[in-house]
Q: What sequence folds into this?
């Protein structure tokens, strides 16, 4: 009887019920109130960027007029719109979470498949974060578009921006669902974006001029916004087609089995005994889970981070250059090290009941961090071509990462009792994150940057570099003693970690 009444109620106001369930699920999650500090921090960050976007919207016409004096600011902006859309697609493809729902819970109810699919597709469109763009678009429409196209053009510009947000949200979602777990698909997508940029850079074909004409036509034409809405509709239909092919869980069984076959064995690690077996498990964990794989795909982007600063390195402060050097030479360790130990949370109890002593477990994680450090450092050695000062910074940063930061990460990981859900997205995801993750940044990056900055004020930068190098060498020389401290700390915290990892947020 209850089932029948509930089913009737659900079918009458389906979408309202879906969103209500999602809201209640969020409120009732154990980690909702525990993450209050992180949520407040994120809220303040959003407020900060909101103000920045509004100010940027009002000042953009002046900036564009200075950048291209021979063009109207509105025309210059139209020329860059294609690049903005391509960048938005890339960012959403890499960072945007996929909307999910527990299908099995609803499939037993008299609910049409189309309604569930529509809910999955509409939910991200209703996310307020998507419309932060309007905090820039509306001021720019007033100050930049209105003088060139009139009030009607300014209004159409705002509508077009909204529909572009819909298109990028839906199309990036389709690309991620279709190709997100396929490394070749990701490479192809990045290659297409690189091709678009290359066409403009090498002046083979002017994307800028094409974008100018297209968006000028859309803003001037009274029905131009309908064409952009059509693009959003196409993206919506593509997502519907995907779900038509992949609605039931068993559709993914072959894909899952294939991934497991590809990553089931790292036999070369077996020669290192139990430490090798644990590292092998960590490697499989990285390759089999969405959250870690996304970070793996992002890693090359961060390794090339130095290209933004090193060409103009002489104009950069010494502290900033050391920050970049530590970040680049330890990028893999920094990105994966934040999850060390607590990424084992889902099966931590099982590990603790195996014949694995604390020394073996800690050393396995230590060697994994060392390997990540060596990998990042070797890949970034071409930066040495930017000059001797960059080479010295990288060598000092490498020593500091190996001798100091690896131990900081391991010791700090014993305090993180939040279980990490590896099936979720990676970027912009605060699940499993607490204020402790932010505190560890102080010794990791802020201390060396500050030390270099202070000594540079007295023209004694080299003394700071020597201090950082000696700290790193000290950590390398006394690594066994430092690991024993971490092992004792792990033993003290082991049961607190077990209890914390059992809780699902």
A:
């Amino acid at each position: 009887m209850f089932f029948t009444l509930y089913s009737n109620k659900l079918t009458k106001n389906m979408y309202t019920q879906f969103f209500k369930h999602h809201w209640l699920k969020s409120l009732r999650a154990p980690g909702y109130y525990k993450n209050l500090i992180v949520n407040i921090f994120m809220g303040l960050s959003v407020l900060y960027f909101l103000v920045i976007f509004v100010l940027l919207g009002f000042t953009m016409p002046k900036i564009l007029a200075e950048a291209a004096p021979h063009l109207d600011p509105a025309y210059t902006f139209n020329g860059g719109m294609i690049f903005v859309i391509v960048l938005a697609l890339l960012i959403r493809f890499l960072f945007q979470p996929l909307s999910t729902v527990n299908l099995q819970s609803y499939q037993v109810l008299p609910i049409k498949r189309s309604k569930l699919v529509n809910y999955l597709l509409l939910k991200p469109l209703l996310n307020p974060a998507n419309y932060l763009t309007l905090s820039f678009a509306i001021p720019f429409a007033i100050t930049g578009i209105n003088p060139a196209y009139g009030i009607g053009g300014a209004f159409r510009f705002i509508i077009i921006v909204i529909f572009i947000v819909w298109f990028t949200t839906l199309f990036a979602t389709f690309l991620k669902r279709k190709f997100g777990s396929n490394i070749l698909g990701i490479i192809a997508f990045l290659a297409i974006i690189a091709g678009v940029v290359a066409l403009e850079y090498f002046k083979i074909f002017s994307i800028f001029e094409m974008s100018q004409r297209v968006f000028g036509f859309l803003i001037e034409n009274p029905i131009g916004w309908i064409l952009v809405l059509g693009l959003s509709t196409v993206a919506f239909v593509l997502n519907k087609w995907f779900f038509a092919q992949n609605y039931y869980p068993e559709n993914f069984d072959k894909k899952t089995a294939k991934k497991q076959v590809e990553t089931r064995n790292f036999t070369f690690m077996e020669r290192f005994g139990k430490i090798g077996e644990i590292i092998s498990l960590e490697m499989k964990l990285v390759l089999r889970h969405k959250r870690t794989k996304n970070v793996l795909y992002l890693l090359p982007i961060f390794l090339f981070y130095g290209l933004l600063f090193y060409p103009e390195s002489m104009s950069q402060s010494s502290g900033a250059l050391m920050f970049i050097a530590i970040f680049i030479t330890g990028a893999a360790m920094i990105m994966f090290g934040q999850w060390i130990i607590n990424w084992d949370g889902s099966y931590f109890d099982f590990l603790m009941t195996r014949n694995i002593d604390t020394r073996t477990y800690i050393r396995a994680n230590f060697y994994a961090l060392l390997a990540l450090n060596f990998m990042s450092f070797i890949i970034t050695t071409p930066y040495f071509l930017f000059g001797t000062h960059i080479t010295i910074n990288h060598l000092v940063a490498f020593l500091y990462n190996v001798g100091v930061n690896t131990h900081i990460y391991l010791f700090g990981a014993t305090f993180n009792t939040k279980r990490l859900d590896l099936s979720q997205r990676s970027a912009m995801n605060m699940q499993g994150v607490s204020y402790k993750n932010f505190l560890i940044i102080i010794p990791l990056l802020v201390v060396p940057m500050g030390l270099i900055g202070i000594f540079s004020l007295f023209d004694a930068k080299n003394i700071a570099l020597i201090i950082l190098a000696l700290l790193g060498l000290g950590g390398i020389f006394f690594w066994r003693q430092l690991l024993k401290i971490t092992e004792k700390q792990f033993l003290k915290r082991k049961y607190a970690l077990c209890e914390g990892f059992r809780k699902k947020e």
Observations:
- DSSP finds 23 helices and no strands in the chain.
